[in-house]
Design goal:
The protein has about 450 residues and is mainly β. About 5% of the residues lie in helices and about 40% in strands. It is built from 2 helices and 33 strands. Strands 2, 28, 29, 30, 31 and 32 form a 6-stranded antiparallel β-sheet that branches. β22 and β23 form a beta hairpin. The N terminus is likely disordered.
Length: about 450
């Protein structure tokens, strides 16, 4: 008679390079290999889920938010610190109260970082933003002076020409989607409900100079999954995949919907209007199999067979949709076959034609050794890449323009890269204009930084 094992398997999202760290630390005068560009005067902040020690949130997306920051100044790395975002949820509050109403401050605040209205914000898509100081201390929730009554996306879009902030909030209860526009100083100008097919998980959207593009895609809230392991969102074969195009100052009735091939995009690279007035939208797109494989590894419910979910997941592909509001025609195609995530661009090109998009390939997305940071030339179709050493895992690379930059890619890529098997991490700075994305500096951080989500460069040169 064999003994029954009581050993519990640690989920992937709580182990390896994704495993959380147990505490907050800080360190000063960090060691730099190479030379930091003296013009980089500011703060790099990256957000991610980091559950409290001994807890399992059930999914990679639902752990409490922890921000990691590195202060660069005049060629020096002044400090590193990491801090949990101090929200009511961190101390046990639930987002749905006993009476069924929502507490929009009970946030994990774990997804992204935004510099806006002279402040730094930690964002998650089901609650309000939380303001932080430059030292990463939590100030508290931000509701645009009481005007925001619902959740805010973790992927708002700042218009580089007007300074306006475009954002939305989605919910599993009607209205499923609300669109908002705010001024550069935090005043909401308009809020408009948008009709979608159902309770879709709309993680991102796109904004061009004159249009909004909505991603109504088949990952939806499933009431039957409440109380079960993982998130209550799953892929639905019955939900149509659509992209909606709406002029900025219009309403729900003016959305033109385009039916596209089944797929799901967590993250948009950019969108713009071409010379024919068509909307060109680029994102990382997952088909049914690639989404469900990744979702299972992150702790979510998958509709794939057990044999399929045991395969190493293959991530989404850099993808383009071209939508013609005049004719209703749409064309779409993958632009590359490399599994990538976290597409980023120069903020100055947001909503306008851009030539270069940056992304990362990580062990979570592919079986290939040698994770890499890549640069796409969307005019020529070329892909440049910098391959990291074995066991190094890249995070999202943020583009920081050089002072008096003369070209779209004249600047630096800043990211945190972490070691999969050792207590090590670096802040990596690369020359974005170099054909091989040559690193110019690596700042040795005092600990491993878990694989996380999104970051931002907060300029402090003025």
């Amino acid at each position: 008679m064999s003994a029954t094992s009581n050993v519990q398997t640690v989920p992937d999202y709580l182990s390896g390079f994704m495993g959380p760290v147990p505490n907050e630390i800080e360190a000063f005068d960090l060691k730099v290999e190479g030379a930091l560009p003296p013009e980089l005067d500011g703060l790099y902040v990256r957000n991610g889920a980091n559950p409290l020690p001994g807890t399992d949130p059930g999914h990679s997306f639902t752990g409490h938010g922890m921000v990691h920051g590195v202060r660069l100044n005049r060629g020096h790395a002044a400090w590193y610190r990491n801090k949990w975002v101090q929200t009511p949820a961190l101390h046990g509050a639930r987002s749905v109260r006993a009476d069924g109403t929502r507490d929009l401050t009970a946030s994990t605040a774990n997804t992204s970082v935004l510099g806006y209205d002279g402040k730094i914000f930690a964002l998650v898509e089901n609650c309000l933003p939380f303001a932080l100081t430059d030292n990463l201390d939590t100030v508290g929730p931000y509701d645009f002076g009481g005007a925001l009554k619902g959740p805010m996306t973790a992927h708002p879009k700042l218009d580089p020409a007007t300074g306006r902030l475009h954002f939305f909030g989605y919910d599993f209860r009607p209205p499923f989607l609300q669109y908002h526009v705010a001024t550069a100083d935090g005043r909401i100008l308009r809020s408009v409900p948008i009709s979608v097919t159902g309770p879709t998980m709309m993680h991102d959207f796109a904004v061009t100079e004159h249009y909004i593009a909505w991603l109504d895609m088949p990952v939806v809230f499933d009431l039957s999954r409440i109380g079960k392991p993982g998130m209550a969102y799953r892929w639905s074969d019955d939900y149509p995949t659509r992209i909606g195009v709406m002029p900025h100052d219009s309403s729900d009735a003016d959305v033109r919907w385009f039916v596209v091939q089944p797929g799901y995009a967590f993250h948009v690279g950019n969108a713009h209007e071409d010379t024919q007035g068509r909307i060109v939208l680029e994102a990382v797109n997952y088909d049914r199999t690639s989404f469900n494989s990744l979702w299972k590894e992150l702790g979510g419910y998958s509709v794939l067979s057990e044999s399929d979910t045991k395969k190493k997941p293959v991530g989404g592909a850099f993808y383009r949709w071209t939508l013609d509001p005049a004719t209703g025609q749409v064309s779409e195609a993958a632009l590359d076959d490399l599994a990538v995530e976290f597409p980023t661009i120069s903020a100055a090109k947001a909503g306008r034609p851009n030539r270069f998009t940056y992304a990362v390939n990580t062990p979570l997305l592919t079986e290939r050794d040698g994770a890499r940071i890549v640069k796409y030339d969307t005019q020529t179709g070329a892909r440049a890449e910098h391959e990291l050493g074995r066991d190094w895992v890249p995070g999202e690379a943020i583009f920081v323009p050089a002072q008096q930059s003369s070209a779209e890619d004249h600047g630096w890529l800043v990211s945190i890269v972490t070691h999969a098997n050792a207590d090590r991490a670096n802040l990596l700075v690369q020359d974005a204009s170099d054909p091989q994305l040559k690193p110019v500096a690596a700042v040795a951080l005092p600990r491993r930084v878990p694989g996380g989500f999104h970051g931002a460069w907060i300029d402090r040169s003025h």
